[in-house]
Design brief:
The chain is α+β, with helices and mostly antiparallel strands. It has helices at 48-57, 71-76, 103-108, 126-150, 174-191; strands at residues 80-81, 87-88, 93-99, 159-164, 167-173. It is built from five helices and five strands.
Length: 217
């Protein structure tokens, strides 16, 4: 069971204490940091043009009792205002889900080989296994939410349903999620040192008649 803990209180042998937010006032606490991947787009963080768009599209029976954007409101951010004052585009959201390809084989077979490509006689250690697991989890639990928050194009426009371990599920305006899928793939490859077997998005050569939107998986 999770419950708040105040520094200075006694800790029993069965307790585990960790920080879930990187807050400045707790920076000096000697507890491990547990990333908490959350992102909820909020109305008050939108720029004036986006707020105006949502108000113009609002219906009389729309409820405004929460600062958190609804999925319908979030989808409106896929539209753009033209020079004539009209809004162009399709107000739809997209769900972006992914995970690391063949991670089971990487854990069971990939750690059995040395840097020279030869199979290790001793197999792999628990330390190697735990380090790889924690490092991959850090990308999805900490790096991915920070990337969304620090990139103006995605900031306050993407819901994090879950992300951690080796997978993720995100929701946002459809046109942004196409770009986010490509950016996440590039960032993960760089994070893994361009290792050829660590990836979650495979590129494909599209026929000349297909548009980029038609080949998005």
């Amino acid at each position: 069971m999770l419950e708040p803990f105040e520094p200075g209180n006694p800790i029993s042998d069965d307790d585990y204490v960790f920080c879930v937010k990187d807050m400045s006032e707790r920076a000096l606490l000697h507890y491990p940091y547990q990333p908490l991947a959350t992102a909820l787009p909020q109305y008050h963080l939108l720029d004036p043009a986006q707020k105006n768009l949502i108000h113009k599209a609002a219906k009389d029976d729309d409820q405004w009792d929460s600062d958190i954007l609804s999925f319908d409101q979030l989808a409106l951010l896929a539209m753009q205002e033209s020079s004539e004052g009209k809004y162009l585009g399709v107000p739809l959201n997209a769900v972006l889900k992914g995970d690391v390809d063949n991670l089971g084989n990487i854990f069971s077979l990939g750690l059995r080989y040395n840097r020279n490509g030869r199979k290790s006689d001793q197999g792999f250690s628990i330390t190697q296994y735990a380090t790889l697991s924690a490092t991959i989890d850090w990308f999805f639990s900490a790096y991915l939410p920070a990337l969304i928050d620090a990139t103006p194009k995605y900031h306050n426009k993407v819901y994090i349903v879950y992300t951690g371990g080796d997978d993720f599920c995100l929701i946002g305006p459809w046109n942004l999620m196409l770009d986010l899928a490509i950016d996440l793939d590039r960032q993960f490859k760089a994070y893994c040192g361009d290792h050829p077997d660590l990836h979650f998005l495979r590129s494909a050569q599209a026929p000349a008649w297909q548009s980029p939107h038609q080949i998005c998986h």
